[in-house]
């Protein structure tokens, strides 16, 4: 990377998600009331028109968004910190999250436990060129777009203006990916899905033990690299003490990791599948394309079981309901902390958001998911494709470190404190 490039320290980047805590004021109280009214109306609508699980999923989405925002729990920043300066604290929180998740997922998947009689099955996807290309693209995209799939949703809820651009082109990219889906998944080389639990013969007990060992290995590797690189520590984020911390200030990463794992397990038992994000983007974009006269129903992606999804209301789609919940939950969390504020747009961050959104949307379709569906959900489901996704997304992150300065985006340096 050119030494002439002016790199802004991470601690100086102004972002409503990472700004100092301010006291709750009247205008923010009005925002909270407005969000609660919207939530109540949406909840009543879902109860009256949709399946019984949809209101429950909206509540789970709210809790997911609230947790993500309050912990500033990131996948994009975790990958970037590790690949740039070797700080692996956030990655270790991922390992805690995954360890709790596999512990909860194992019995749920083994016995098909569910709240609404749907059964339960994990995300286990094929291994092929589409996975390699898609996850690598996603790694680049999330570093340019300023957030991953979950990060885009909770940043939108927190008022980060540029993320609205990222979300729009995330939807566009996902729709294009849906149109090209048969080429990548049927016309190119691919292997059958591999489950550590069922394909290998280890069973869920053996797969759980192997998974825990792998998470421990990754955590140990991050510690070794951190010490060898003398990686800078993460700067403390302003917070409060006692019960007020529920509403204001930052939550500990590891506490949020446990909360996210529990919420994902509850999602699995509620709708019969783990938490996902980006399939809804393909649905939204395809419905918009159909409205403009494009025959999306003929696309291979929307054949079979997906055909009914395309024909139904978006509120019948469980992933859509979860996404709406995440956005509203993050909005409530930001307003409760007095932090909701729209940020400024620049030519550089808008251009990066467009490219990043397209890369993430397209990549997620190719890779059978994003940081949530493929990485979090896939690994928690004992799928080998989740591990491959993580490795290739890290590789994409490394490439993106050299691209970010071209758009005026910061890259952490060893002398910087990390937010």
Structure keywords:
disordered N terminus, cell inner membrane, globular, membrane, transmembrane helix, two-stranded antiparallel sheet, mainly alpha, 15 helices, YeeE/YedE family protein, transmembrane, 419 residues
Return residue spans where pLDDT drops below 50 for at least 5 consecutive residues. Answer: 1-26
> How would you sum up the major sheet?
2 strands, antiparallel
- Separation of the first and last Cα atoms: 22 Å
List SSEs in N-to-C order.
HHHHEHHHEHHHHHHHH
Query: What shape does the CA trace take?
Result: globular
Number of helices: 15
Number of strands: 2
Could you say which structural class the secondary elements and strand pairing correspond to?
mainly alpha
Provide the number of structural domains.
1
Beta-strand content estimate? under 5%
Can you give the mean pLDDT?
Answer: 89
- Give the helix proportion (percent range): 55-70%
Radius of gyration over C-alpha positions, nearest whole angstrom: 20 Å
Subcellular location: Cell inner membrane
GO cellular component, one term: plasma membrane
Transmembrane segments: 31-48, 54-75, 96-117, 162-184, 204-225, 246-266, 321-340, 352-376, 382-403
Family: Belongs to the TsuA/YedE (TC 9.B.102) family.
What does this structure look like?
62% of the residues lie in helices and 1% in strands. The protein is mainly α. It has one domain. A two-stranded antiparallel sheet has the order 1-2.
Structure summary:
The protein is mainly α and 419 residues long.
Blueprint (SSEs and pairs):
Blueprint lengths: L25 H24 L3 H19 L4 H10 L3 H23 L15 E2 H17 L3 H9 L4 H26 L2 E2 L11 H26 L24 H19 L6 H14 L14 H6 L6 H19 L10 H20 L4 H10 L3 H17 L19
Antiparallel strand pairs: 1-2
